[in-house]
Amino acid sequence: MIEITPEEQVELDKALYDALDPLASAIRSRLSGLPEDRKWEAEPVEVALSVLAAWKVVDTEVKRLTATAAGTAGAYGASYERLGSVWGITRQGARKKWPDAVGRPVAESRTVQLCGGTAEVAREPGVGGWRWAGVGADGTRGAAEAEVRYATPEEAAAHAGAFLKGHARVDEGPARVDGAAMRREADDFFGTEDRVGDEDPWGRGARG
Predict the structure, then answer these.
(1) Of the four listed, 28, 141, 158, 166, which is most buried by Cβ atoms within 10 Å?
(2) 126-130, long-range: CB within 8 Å, 24+ apart, which pairs?
């Protein structure tokens, strides 16, 4: 099992607490019914329980992301023995923890839909990295920077999701996504070598 340095531990703790703080604040505000500037006016035990509730949310999300990472590694050829070695458990333990991780093919593309916008995440032919391109609900188009290649589709999808969230339209309902225009832009961005047909341009249906 990989160990981190004390310096890395400090940075990790800081990042986790920075991420936790707004979530704990939102939970505390909902539980107390108090306005933002008074949300921490409560007994210490109530405040501590709000923080614990936030950590529970984070714990659930980490488990989901962990399973996704294990599945991605397995799809790229990692065995249960290697998964277990990284996690500090046996091969049998890894199989029990992530029963569907090994032997699952990697999809060549996927769609991210969030806040009324849509993005395509796809593996770049001949390179192996992942990129994204999409359009937000407010009509803004965006894509990964030209030199950026993400190691996993999940990482690319996370960046695409952040873009879509930042370009949600709040004044009215979600904007209609122009699928044909987005397809043309995706073709220009990713190329057309892997296209299967006009209805399923990157073969999502064929690959499951």
Answers:
(1) 28
(2) 126/193, 130/155, 130/156
Of the candidates 136, 149, 148, 127, the residue with the CA atom closest to the CA atom of residue 182: 136
What residue has token string 């999502």? 204
How confident is the model over 101-135, as pLDDT tens digits? 887 666 677 888 988 999 999 887 656 688 899 99
Please report which confidence band the pLDDT of residue 60 belongs to, taking 50, 70 and 90 as the band edges: very high
How many CB atoms are closer than 10 A to CB 178?
A: 14
Residue 43 in tokens: 């007994």
Q: Beta strand pairing status for 117-123 and 141-143? A: unpaired
Residue with tokens 């990989």: 2
Per-residue pLDDT tens over the stretch 136-159: 999 999 998 888 888 888 888 889
